Each structure stands twice: as structure tokens, then as C-alpha cells.
Amino acid sequence: MALNTTILNTVAATGFTVAFFHAAIPTHWLPFVLVARTRRWSRTKTLLVTLCAGVGHVALTSLLGLAIAWFGFQLDARLGAAFPWLTGGLLLAIGSYYFWRQWRGGGIRHHHLIGGHHQASAECGHRHERSHWDEELQDSPLASEQAGDWAAMSGLFVMLTLSPCEGFLPVYLSGVQFGWHGFFVLSLILAVATLLGMLLFTWLTLVGLEKFEVRSFERYEAALLGGLFSALGVLIIWLEH
Fold it and tell me: Which of 38, 73, 186, 217 is most buried, by CB atoms within 10 Å?
């Protein structure tokens, strides 16, 4: 019992870290700030729009997590004691993939504003100091005066909802051994960490704290995920052994 609690707490802590730092990436809050400034939205309205988009983002990620959990339950029933070894091995493989992606210069896959265009590079064009979102916003109908607020809000919602938190999906895999209880706990953690991160960084920018450094989260997200999943995989295998 104590061993299961230790593993679940570790998985939960890993999940919170993954979700919060993923939400800290500018793609999850900067577009809302830029569109809000262009349309002169109040802080309250901007935060509400951010919250709604975040709920969509969490909902789709949880739905994908549900599919992973259900498939994992079937494997767990068939493999029995071998399943934790398989889970640990997969987490190590996923961690290696993220390290490889970081090494190749693909630290993060970006969301882009609907209708905007962006010149890609090894780091998605982030070799200049100014954010590329300013340029994309100029070409996006989200900032057009001809489009109403509902169109802008819908565009932001769709942009984020259709880009689920891929980094959290392996966390669902690691929680399979805890059944539906583990799934619901991890889904709650995903929601709290993601919405907290999005609202916090949106609010900090709205009140004028624009110079806090979050670029490292974006640039090294793949390495962070690689380290977390590799450590979690090793822990699961070690505790099972």
C-alpha cells in the first residue's frame, strides 16, 4: 500500500510539473494578451476567454488520456506483473525521444494564430528578440476589425483546444496501474496545473510584468520532459524490482 502511494504521488507530482511548465510556454497565454490588447478587452474578459480555451485544451487532452487509460487497462489485465516493466520501458523510450527532439532543435511544437503565417526555422523562428506572435497577429482575422469578438474568441478556443498537451499523455500511461482512480486524479491535476499556469502568466502580462523570462521553458521543454519521463520510468522499474 505504501509503495503504491509512493508511486502515485510521484506520478502526480510529475504530472503537475509537466502540465504547469507546458502552460508557461507563451503559446498558451501570449496570443490571448495580444488579441485582447488589439480589441481592447478588459482584464476580466481576457482571463475568462483564456479560461474557456484552457478548459477545451484540458478536455481534449483528458479524452486522449481516457483512450490511453482504457487501452492500458486491457494490457494490464493480460500482462499482469510484466506491465510495470513495459510501462517503465515505454517511459524511458519516450524520454529518449524528447531528448533526441531537443538535440535536433525541436524543443516545442508551436500553435499558430488562425490565418497568420510564420517563417519556420530550427527554433520556429525564435532567433530574434521580438516575439513572432506580433507579426502573426497582423495577418490573422482574430485582430481584424471586421471580425467580431465572438469570432476572435472562437478562434482562440479552437487554436488551443485542437492542440492537446502531448507531454501529459505519457503521464496517463504511468498511472494505468492505479485504475480509474488514478485516471481521475491525473485528470484533475492536469486541469488545475494547466489552468493555473495559463491564468497566472496571462494575468502577469496584463498587469505589466512582461519582462519575466519564460523563453527557456519554450526552448528547453523537450529536454525537461525527457528528464522527467526517464526518471519516472527508472523509478517505476526500480520499485517493481
Answer: 186
Complete DSSP assignment for 172-189: HHHTGGGHHHHHHHHHHH
- Binned average pLDDT, 10 residues per bin, the chain of 241 residues: 70 90 86 88 94 96 94 83 79 85 66 47 43 54 66 89 87 87 94 96 82 58 79 76 59
Task: Please check whether residue 148 lies inside any domain of the structure.
Answer: no
- 87 contacts: CB under 8 Å, gap ≥ 6: 72, 173, 174, 176, 177, 233, 236
* Distance linking the first and last C-alpha atoms of the chain: 16
pTM attached to this predicted model: 0.77
Radius of gyration of the chain (CA): 19
82 domain residue, yes or no? yes
In whole angstroms, give the CA distance from residue 36 to residue 42: 8
CA distance linking residue 86 with residue 83, whole number of Å: 5
User: Is 47 part of any domain?
Assistant: yes
Residues 118-162 have pLDDT tens digits of 444 444 444 444 445 555 555 566 655 556 788 888 889 998 998
Q: Is residue 214 part of a domain?
A: yes
Cell triple for 206: 496584463
What total of structural domains would you count in the chain?
A: 1
